[in-house]
Design brief:
Layout lengths: L5 H15 L13 H20 L2 E6 L4 H4 L5 E3 L1 H10 L4 E5 L2 H10 L4 E3 L15 H10 L4 E5 L4 H4 L4 E3 L4 H7 L4 E5 L2 H14 L4 E4 L12 H10 L4 E4 L5 H5 L3 E2 L2 H10 L4 E5 L2 H10 L4 E3 L13 H9 L11 H19 L2
Parallel strand pairs: 1-2, 1-3, 3-4, 5-6, 5-7, 7-8, 9-10, 9-11, 11-12
Helix pairs in contact: 1-2, 2-14, 4-5, 5-15, 12-13
Bound molecules: iron/sulfur cluster.
Iron/sulfur cluster binds next to loops.
Length: about 350
Amino acid sequence: MRELTAWEIETQAQRLYGLLGNVTDFKTGGKHTLEYCRAIAPYALAINNLKKENDAVILAHYYCAPEIVYGVADFKGDSYALAKAAAEFSGRNIIFCGVYFMAQTAKIVNPGKRVYLPPAAAGCSLADGIDAETVSKLKERYPDAAFVCYINSTAEVKALCDVCVTSSNVYDIAAALPNERIVFIPDLFMADNIRAELKRRGVKKEILSFGATCCVHDKYTVRDIEKLRAGHPLVKIISHPECALAVCQASDYCGSTSGMLEYVRKSADKEFAVLSEDGIVNSLEFENPSKTFYSVSRPCGQMKRNTLDNILAVLKDIDKAPQIQVPEATALKAKLCIDNMFKMAGKK
Ligand code: SF4
């Protein structure tokens, strides 16, 4: 790798500051400074140069740090958008900045590509909340049910399910399935939200749920919302369906990450509080510089394990870096489950 000049580094620092200057650095609680951008500029420059040399693309989930999402990513998005981007990528190497199940999904939908997850073992409390053995037993117990998994699940679990969903299509897909009984895994809170939404739509189905909760979103309470409204009478509360049903129902808007971005973009309101991960607040700040976001978001420690440092380490020695591997038989079955989501979501 050639040495970078002082002029290149300063130009990159100014570019980063232009992108991140209005965005909160949750490590300090203040906005990103020019000094910080100068410190990360050599990493961003080296990554952007090595990407081209290695025919690589960086896909970054919104929950990653903003210097990744805005500084080096070629494509940013929520789980659904990133899975689609991975499926459509025609180059050689996918660097997936997210957590393990997301990188597995990229490998499943585009098996000919080499897929890397910079923090090799970054997990997720939802995906780790149910295993394939448990799902196999559930299938024996409920042979008449449609098995629907949230995209936050392992390849082995997806391989056993009929269709997977993301927070942007879960209600439409659940409503459209012909089965009267659905086993939804692994997000217990999202299952509560599905029951409520289907009831609101007048769709009669039995939703059984098994698994876990998101360790970031499950911390929010209705009391948090009451305090926010008491302190900021004009605030609009936004939450994610991984939050508890009572929290979602007490919010002004509850929806997927991309849904939140659209809601704020179109809203005439000026003050918001986001009951979700820090990274989505960064993206909201980036897109809406004239709006105020009160600090109630939380970090996902696993998502934050993606750093410029470990992305650079992968790119510097890409032939030797550990790749995501999914056994072929598992990948083929899991792909059917994901493809069913793309088909059903496309029918809307
Ligand atoms: S925010 Fe929750 S659901 Fe998303 S990766 Fe982190 S633990 Fe998993």
